[in-house]
Amino acid sequence: MLISSPTSGVLIPIPQYPLYTATLAQHNGRPIPYYLDESKGWATSVHEIELALEQAHKVGTVPKALVIINPGNPTGALLDEETMIQLVHICEKYSLVLLADEVYQNNLHKREQFPFTSFKKVVRKLDSHVALVSFHSISKGVSGECGRRGGYFECTNISEPVVSLIYKMVSVGLCPPLSGQIGVDTMVRPPKEGEESYALWRKETDATHAALAQRTNVMAERLNTLPGITCVDSPGALYLFPKITLSQKAQDAAREAGKEPDVFYSLALLDATGICVVPGSGFGQKADEWHYRLTCLCPGVEEYVGQLETFHQGWVEKYGV
Ligand SMILES: Cc1ncc(COP(=O)(O)O)c(C=O)c1O
Q1: Which CATH number fits domain 198-319: 3.40.50.1240, 3.90.1150.10, 3.30.70.100, 3.60.9.10?
Q2: CA 140 – ligand 1 centroid, Å
Q3: Domain 8-188 belongs to what topology?
Q4: What pLDDT, on the 0 to 100 scale, is given for residue 144?
Q5: Percent of the chain with pLDDT over 90
Q6: 65, 96 Cβ separation under 8 angstroms
Q7: Interacting residues of 297 by C-beta distance below 8 A, sequence separation 6+
Q8: From ligand 1's centre to the CA of 120, what distance in Å?
Q9: Would the CB of 176 count as within 6 Å of ligand 1?
Q10: Boundaries of each Aminotransferase class I/classII large domain copy (predicted)?
Q11: Is the C-beta atom of 151 inside 6 A of ligand 1?
């Protein structure tokens, strides 16, 4: 509905979850990329968003919405409340719909130090009129695994006629499968303290979150000791997005093989170890920078980090840093 003409654009963070640009392409809209700041833990910068808006105006793109992924995929970054307030103000200033992708809101590795705040809370606190759509999903490691799909979006400050139209459009799909509906119900109404299943639910949920946090921590710490790799220790989501320096020799070998350098590295890693990472070029990154995305879902972190280290050392011996 936001993409009302081929000049309509949506601000998308880079690196991004690639289904956003894919969906925009499908609906004939334009992505307006804005860069996250890796040097500040993949922070979202209002300045970068304003630069992207200026660029969009120059090419005749009409900005309609701002996508924020919090916690981030692939970066794992988490917004603080101060930044969220600034982002709501940006949406007010430029009449943008705020699309708050909060599907990783329960995947927090350092809850005390880095808590999650929803955009709905911030919008309400500011008494803002910004139109907000918040997304949540069951597939992020606890209520459901990746094969179990279910989720919702919630509309705040969106007028009744528009909500009616959304209902009409969504109703074309009849209803989601029963398993997805049950999954969403268990996510939004978890057992309460004092109920029979509370203790087991708490124990299993906490154990899953603790394991994800521990693996993320081990991976970030060990990756940061490798030559030519720097890795932001992410406070949330299910990912790390380390930066890899690839020597000219490695870049030349990649080009000769007809591959992007980070794709070349990732395929070599897969061949050598069976570990499948996603090259940074799949998510977008600054020119001449290389990354890959690792997930913390897999148990056995000591073993696979060991394999990553051995592979990388061999790579450095062959191609240099
Ligand atoms: C940032 C982000 N948003 C949305 C989704 C979609 O989640 P689901 O397929 O569970 O609806 C994903 C899934 O990986 C994601 O990473």
Answers
A1: 3.90.1150.10
A2: 8
A3: Aspartate Aminotransferase; domain 2 (3.40.640)
A4: 67
A5: 91
A6: yes
A7: 141, 212, 238
A8: 19
A9: no
A10: 4-296
A11: yes
Tokens of 57: 């105006």
- Expressed in angstroms and rounded, the spacing between residue 56 Cα and the centre of ligand 1 is 26
Q: Which atom of ligand 1 is nearest to the CA of 151?
A: 11
Ligand 1 in reach of 69 Cβ (< 6 A) = yes
**H helix intervals, the chain:** 19-26, 46-58, 81-94, 119-126, 160-171, 178-188, 198-223, 248-256, 261-273, 301-319
Give the largest Cα separation in the chain, rounded. 64
pLDDT digits over 128-183, tens only? 999 999 999 998 877 766 778 899 999 999 999 999 999 999 899 888 889 889 99
The residues with which 62 forms a beta bridge, in sequence order, are 8
Domain boundaries, the chain: 8-188, 198-319
* 173-227 residue pLDDT tens: 888 889 889 999 999 999 999 999 999 999 999 999 999 999 999 999 999 999 9
